[in-house]
Amino acid sequence: HDEGLAVARRIAGAYVDEEGLVLYPREALQEVESAIRRIYETNPNALLSPASVVLRIKWASEKLAAEVMERLGESGFLRQAEGLWLRADRDPAELIDALPEQLYRILEEEGLTPEAPYDLYDRLDLDRKRGDGALKALTRAKKVIRLDRNIFVTHDNLHRAQALMRELMVKHGYLDIRLFKVETGMSRKYCIAYLEYLDRQGDVVREGERRLLRFGMGNE
């Protein structure tokens, strides 16, 4: 390895990722820089890390992404705050501190079928680790409830879902996955998550795949 690295270091204009043992031509740095610039120009509120970049540019190493982001920082296009890179003209406190509330508003607007966290983070150009931290803060505050590995719903939307399920049980005498899908149009994944949460409520009894109210509408 040492001999190969010594040769690679002598190649003019190339970038050597010595940890990953990868040699990149000059054009690779330019391509990564252009891609990163496009992200921040399209979304001025992007909050990314080198780890975020390599999820978008599969062939690039994290070390290469870090090098390019450092260069963009030196040029005045980006700035670093709390391990994240943001546009130099953005206030770190406003973007980072507002993350939990931003995620909460989106999940609330998405109603009973919120998108998976990683899909949400990628759409927002948000570093996944930082997104997970903000989402965990919301769950600790009980503003968001985790129903399944990739289903996080706001407390208010969960309350609406439970009210709807009880209404359907009163209307039909029972509720199961098929009936819930027909009545709501939700996918099986969401129906199962809500019904399994319902199973843990004291006023509901499960008989096979059917859920029945134990005593009238009950109280939550």
UniProtKB/TrEMBL annotation:
It holds the Pfam family WHD_3rd_SelB. Keywords: Elongation factor, Protein biosynthesis. Residues 170-213 form the Elongation factor SelB fourth winged-helix domain. GO terms for molecular function: GTP binding; RNA binding; translation elongation factor activity. It comes from Nitratifractor salsuginis. One of its GO terms (biological process) is selenocysteine incorporation. The keyword Cytoplasm does not apply. This is Selenocysteine-specific translation elongation factor. InterPro entries: SelB_WHD4, WH-like_DNA-bd_sf, WH_DNA-bd_sf. One of its GO terms (cellular component) is cytoplasm. Transmembrane segments: none annotated. SUPFAM superfamilies: Winged helix' DNA-binding domain (SSF46785).
